[in-house]
Amino acid sequence: MTGDDKVDPEWLVDIIREDDYSVLVVTPAMLSNYFEVCTEASLSDFTLLIFDEYHHAKQDHCYNKLVMKCLQFRHNAPPNAKIPQVCMVWYGNAYINT
Fold first, then answer.
1. What is the pTM of this model?
2. Which of 29, 36, 93, 98 lies 20 to 30 Å from 56 when distance is taken between CA atoms?
3. What angle do the packed helices 28-37 and 62-76 form, to 10 degrees?
4. How far is CA 46 from each of CA 6, 14, 16, 49, rounded to the nearest angstrom?
5. Run of H or E including 90
6. What pLDDT, on the 0 to 100 scale, is given for residue 29?
7. How many CB atoms lie within 10 A of CB 83?
8. Rounded alpha-carbon distances, angstroms, from residue 86 to 9, 44, 73
9. What's the pLDDT tens digit per position in 56-98?
10. Residues of 21-39 as b/e, b for ≥16 C-beta within 10 angstroms?
11. How far is the C-alpha of 64 from the C-alpha of 17, rounded, in Å?
12. Please, which residues bridge with residue 87 across strands?
């Protein structure tokens, strides 16, 4: 299942809010859909985000949107906010479209 599948993203909201998972693997499109659908969604819902295959990120790719969201969150977060660690794994050329 990917973010391109016409799956109701509300199911991801339920999974994340249950807090029963130590590891959750989703595509970047699914995570983007989560932030679009869930108005109370926050990056503080996560402790670690690993963006694998980041070398596929080009211009308006979901990865770039998510990384920009992470950077904005970190910049605007209050002092005691839970900020997730972010790891990007890529091979070759990739860039963040700012």
1. 0.71
2. 36
3. 50
4. 24, 14, 9, 7
5. none
6. 82
7. 13
8. 22, 12, 12
9. 777 777 888 888 888 898 899 888 888 888 887 776 665 555 5
10. eeeeebebbbbbbbbeebe
11. 24
12. 50
